[in-house]
Specification:
- 2 copies of one chain form a homodimer.
- Chain A is of the alpha+beta class.
- Chain A has 3 domains: about 260 residues, Bira Bifunctional Protein, Domain 2 (BirA Bifunctional Protein, domain 2); about 100 residues, Rossmann fold, CATH 3.40.50; about 70 residues, 2-Layer Sandwich (Translation Initiation Factor IF3).
- Chain A is about 35% helix and about 25% strand.
- The first copy, chain A, has 13 helices and 25 strands.
- An 11-stranded mixed beta sheet of chain A has the order 3-9-10-16-13-12-11-24-25-23-22. Chain A has a 5-stranded mixed beta sheet with strand order 18-17-19-20-21, sandwiched between helices. A 3-stranded antiparallel beta sheet of chain A has the order 4-8-5, with no helix packed on it.
- In chain A, about 50% of the residues are buried.
- At the A-B interface, strand 2, helix 2, strand 3, strand 4 and strand 5 of A face strand 2, helix 2, strand 3, strand 4 and strand 5 of B.
- Strand 5 of chain A pairs antiparallel with strand 5 of chain B.
């Protein structure tokens, strides 16, 4: 940490603040293994909550989980040319299957005689390995749609890593679906983007733009990619999830065919979609403040923490018994409550720890509260401190948590609106991107040339062509050509 | 399948039957990637149920989940010598991080310039990588115990693979705990073995022997290993779970120390324990019959399947409406029910499919049932078919499921008892092992020599030194020496 107890502030050094929030919140740490992270128990509990909500949403939309191998034979990578190029540059390659002592006996080395006939790649994503298997599951239109999801670890070799946002190994889910028609595949691609937007806004309290990626930003091998984009507090964008319509590209590469109702053999239409532990990075950077983590109640491992306060050991039992008159009814209401009964730790130190860990609501329970059948409540998001009668608190606790949840979303949405600009010249775009940053809504001709120029000159990229931008005809702010190919404003921003 | 619709029977060819049950039950398949399996949606749903129950048990005993890297730097493997030897022989080794085109441009090859400075091993188990991280989490006795669990994929290079029982990659959980005293570590090791036994008997309906492994069968690097051993229907043993007391061995290798209350620096005491997707193999081989899979209600993806029967299309809507008068109340009771409303499929074909998939209770609902406000019930375990009044069925359904669960456990226990023999001579041991097989309770001197002799001559191994064998003094059935070192009968059997 920077100075004494406090964290580096966001305005001092945003990147440093981010790292300190993670450390202070005990979420994760860099592992001695290059590029890999250790997700610590508190961070993993947060991931479990996110995963469980998403998993329920996937199942409610008809998807089943399955599990496919970690290894992809090298030859699979040549089946979809664009895809291959996209991932071959950064992958972990398994070449041997046995270690033996070195000649001097002091170390271990791969046994040359255990060299694999064909190298195996650790999956960076599983399209190729999944298609290799499911093509045997599908004979006719009756076997479609096939709606699968997988929760797994994947590896993309990364030179510059950052906890949650960019690591060599990360955890994610990848949906893979197969359809009989282009329309159904498109419907699925859009539906799952909607699921992500629903999760992000209504559970993670992260407002998102929904839209389509430009050609240069789409997934390697996709017809097109939809995405949800969020704005972090440093006004940079975070791609929070993507949903790809793969058309018949992979089906053709893997000869994934089905017999139509009319008896014709056709290539299937496929999609894939995914979100990852990167969402935790997005959650941190959307809500947290200079005191540390701030978690939305719907995903927080502990929604309420109870800190009992006793001055003399003689008071302890009574205070704990009274605390239980809060803890037990909260549990009964299905609220995730944690009682911090640690001995030999000052209450102030506990307050400070739970503040850094972002627990939405803290209850302080001392002798006076016990006397009055009351409780001191402290909101993490606003810092508001209020004494309440115990019964009144219990009656209203769910409403309070809902209000915190709504406040976080509204605050993040207001921040994004404030920092989203209609931009009508390249100079203005540069000014914003090089200044405070933010989302720049601008007209674009649709050419790679303009996109590349902006990216190389300003480092801003096209985050998406938003679904909900109104139609607008005019000239590209870069080259002055008509935007008729796109027909609406697109969004530029620097991004994670 | 062997002949028409039927499976190969258990008596005809047990191994073939096992493979066919998995295929007919749509649980899993071999992947084109050597040694790896694909867990299909129905098989994965079963694993999810097992995982969720175990996860709850681990959390209820105070453990938290976390996640550690997939990769282990080669140098970590030399920190615990025995452990190193145990796993170096069969591992996947990552040596490069980039693919480039071959000189002729027709293929891809590892880029020589991307060769890693230090090779990485795909975790075969995570002790080494976890200890490398958590030694920084622990300063003093106040940080102990540390009670972690991880759900993950691991890789052990296997030459001969078998779905669920032995695959190169498999899914598992690995608990890793750190304690301040030898007593606490021992208590934890025993407690988690108890959790496994509880899960196996009360959820999977698999009776198990709890005991200790002989020196030669213990985990590489452990002080001692406890295990739960089940008997499959071919009378061979399956090691269903293990719990290791690692003493201070790993703590010393990784310099995992803590400061005691008295201010002294000491090496910690650690444990690890795990179960894997192998449990699915055990579940199959314990309960299934010649018609296919039989699943215990507490873990079955669908506990009840409802098959509506209509002769004319005009009846369909009424029948489905009536079926819902079963489905809706079952759902309300929290019972996992599946309505098989597939069109253009004969009811008989559906019955057959759900039988192969082992659904504990099948409901057939036709026009006559509708008229009588009744339902035809069919138990998978016994094949018993009984018409019932709808209300009476709904009132008793939980009791019926509980009875099926209890029947499966009782049947498996009776089978094990019938095939467990008190054996008082080596000749008798050989006779049993080379005949029908089974568990042989026998006196053993405790020497490696006798253990090795039996193993090389009969392929039987010591499954465990059971906790609940009574004390019994006498002579080793192999060498005739006294068994005073062991002091009770141990169990010999061929095993998976």
């Amino acid at each position: 940490m920077a100075k004494g107890q406090g964290l580096t502030t966001r305005t001092e050094d945003y990147a440093k603040w981010y790292g300190e929030v993670i450390e202070a919140g005990d979420l994760a740490e860099h592992s001695p293994v290059r590029g890999c992270m250790v997700i610590k128990p508190y961070g993993y509990a947060l991931w479990e909550n996110m995963r469980d909500v998403l998993d329920r949403m996937f199942k409610d939309t008809g998807h089943s989980n399955a599990y496919f191998p970690l290894f992809i034979p090298k030859s699979y990578l040549s089946k979809e040319a664009e895809h291959d190029e996209g991932f071959a540059k950064e992958c972990a390659i398994v070449t041997h299957s046995r270690l033996i002592p070195t000649p001097d006996g002091k170390d271990l080395m791969p046994d040359p005689s255990s060299k694999l006939e064909e190298e195996l790649i650790i999956r960076p994503t599983s399209e190729t390995i999944i298609y290799g298997a499911i093509k045997n599951w599908i004979q006719s239109y009756r076997d479609l749609p096939l709606l699968l999801n997988q929760w797994a670890n994947v590896v993309r070799w990364e030179m510059r890593t950052r906890l949650f946002l960019r690591t060599a190994e990360f955890l994610w889910q990848e949906g893979h679906t197969v359809h009989a028609t282009a329309e159904e595949a498109e419907e699925e691609t859009a539906k799952m983007l909607g699921v992500y937007a629903d999760f992000l806004e209504n559970w993670a309290a992260i407002p998102v733009l929904q839209g389509r990626k430009s050609e240069s930003e789409k997934f390697a091998g996709a017809d097109h990619t939809y995405c949800v984009e969020a704005m972090m507090q440093d006004r940079r964008a975070l791609q929070a999830g993507t949903s790809h319509n793969l058309g018949q590209n992979f089906a053709k590469g893997f000869d994934l065919t089905y017999q139509t109702q009319e008896g014709k053999l056709e290539h299937a239409w496929t999609t894939s979609w995914g979100v990852s532990t990167r969402l935790i990075g997005g959650l941190i950077m959307t809500h947290s403040d200079d005191k540390g983590l701030v978690l939305p109640p719907k995903l927080a491992p502990h929604q309420v923490v109870v800190v009992p306060i006793w001055r003399k050991d003689a008071q302890k039992d009574d205070i704990l018994a009274y605390a239980d008159k809060l803890v037990a009814p909260l549990r009964e209401k299905g609220i995730r409550v944690h009682l911090d009964a640690r001995d030999k730790m000052q209450p102030g130190k506990k307050f400070y720890e739970w503040e850094k860990k972002g627990v939405p609501l803290r209850l302080e329970v001392g002798p006076r509260d016990m006397e009055n059948d009351g409780v001191m409540t402290v909101r993490r998001d606003t810092g508001d401190k209020a004494p309440m009668a115990r019964e009144a608190f219990l009656d209203g606790v769910q409403a309070t948590l809902d209000e915190i949840q709504a406040t976080l979303l509204a605050k993040a949405r207001a921040f994004r609106e404030e920092n989203t600009h209609a931009v009508d010249s390249y100079d203005r775009l540069k000014e914003i991107v090089e200044g405070d940053g933010g989302f720049c809504r601008a007209l674009w001709c649709g050419s790679d040339a303009c996109e590349n120029q902006v990216q190389s000159e300003t480092k801003a990229t096209i985050r998406c062509i938003p679904f909900d931008e109104p139609e607008e005809k005019g000239d590209c702010i870069i080259c002055g050509e008509s935007n008729e190919k796109i027909g609406k404003r697109i969004v530029w921003s620097k991004a994670y």
